[in-house]
Design a protein that fits this description.
The protein is an alpha/beta fold. It has eight helices and nine strands. The protein has one domain: Alpha/Beta hydrolase fold, catalytic domain (Rossmann fold), CATH 3.40.50.
Length: 237
């Protein structure tokens, strides 16, 4: 069984998942060779112009097509928006895991997450070029308060801007209606309130609550690895 990760918005690669390799390996799970699918909307993923959420979903579907083993597909934050579209109809995806994530219906968008009408104070939209970013000064306390200083410094280097259009696009399919799913509520997440997470979590087949902030893959990788191992062991319906 392989684990394929899809990272969140406003970061440019999948290195956010590097601390998961060892704890997953100890539990008998492998990680896709690229660790995480490269999202087309993230500058730095390629030398082409950034794409949108549908281009991201296509990239994930293509990555899944390269795997020769059953897959647990994990979406973190915005990544949940991508996997719900990308995994539909993919026979090798055996379980979906949403980590402090959107888990939308067909008519829901990333910007509707938690019912917020305005972006959080850490968001930094640029109308002139149609992109969204995050203000670095808010990142440690809002997103990484349970991470150590070296980790925070490392991940600040991976922050980027993405097309604002991705926050207003709806999925073309709803994979969680056809595949088993687990939702991971991060109870100490300051950026995505736990009550908002629970609003989506009720749609999942199972729910696990972890005592972490927004990035459990960095602060408590061993806890998240156990959740993924349990998801991998879930019998197919």
């Amino acid at each position: 069984m392989k684990v394929v990760f899809v990272h969140g918005a406003l970061v440019f690669d999948g290195a956010w998942w590097h601390r998961m390799v060892e704890p997953l390996g100890a539990l008998g799970l492998g990680i896709s060779g690229r660790r995480a699918a490269e999202l087309r909307s993230s500058p730095g993923a390629s030398d082409k112009a950034p794409g949108d959420m549908y281009a991201d979903a296509y990239a994930v579907t293509a990555a899944l097509g390269e795997e020769d083993e059953p897959v647990v597909l994990v979406g973190h934050s915005y990544g949940g928006m991508v996997i719900i579209d990308a995994a539909a109809g993919c026979g090798n995806v055996k379980h979906l895991v949403y980590v402090t994530s959107v888990m939308p219906e067909r008519d829901e968008t990333m910007s509707s997450f938690g019912g917020a009408r305005e972006p959080g104070p850490w968001m930094d939209p640029h109308r002139e070029d149609g992109t969204m970013g995050v203000k670095d000064e808010f990142l440690p306390e809002a997103f990484m308060q349970d991470c150590d200083e070296p980790t925070i410094a490392e991940e600040l280097e991976r922050v980027t801007r993405q097309p604002v259009v991705i926050f207003g696009q709806t999925p073309r399919a709803v994979a969680w209606r056809e595949k088993p799913s687990t939702y991971v509520v991060c109870a100490e997440d300051r950026a995505t309130p736990p009550e908002a997470q629970w609003g989506y979590a009720r749609r999942a087949d199972s729910v696990v609550e972890l005592p972490t902030g927004h990035h459990p893959m960095l602060s408590r990788p061993e806890l998240l690895a156990r959740v993924l191992a349990e998801a991998a062991a879930t019998p197919e319906e």
